[in-house]
Amino acid sequence: MTMKATIQEASKKLAALIERAHRGEEIVICRGSRPLVRLAPISREKKTRRPGALRGKLIVGPEFFEPLPENELAV
To answer: According to the model, what pLDDT value does residue 19 have?
Structure first.
């Protein structure tokens, strides 16, 4: 469910709105009835990158290293 708040309401209740957004609720801050911004949590999950994670999953054939045909180079 989306909660809407005006700029004035948001400035008075910012800490509470941040807590609600942090728990997963969508908060939209409006100027009058026009939505301006969405308050959302920053994702905490950082994907760790592992060198070689795709080793053996991708295959590059020898044709990859051959020169492109003239008709493809002309484009």
So the answer is: 94
Answer yes or no: are the C-beta atoms of 5 and 13 closer than 8 Å.
yes
**CATH code, domain with 15:** 3.40.1620
**pLDDT per residue over 18-70, tens digit each?**
999 999 899 999 999 999 999 988 877 777 888 988 888 988 899 999 998 88
Q: What contacts 3, CB < 8 A, 6 or more positions away?
A: 17, 20, 25, 26, 27, 28
| 75 within some domain | no
Q: How many distinct structural domains can be found in the chain?
A: 1
Which residues span the domain enclosing 8? 1-41
- The tokens for 72 are 């493809």
What is the token pair recorded at 49? 């990158």
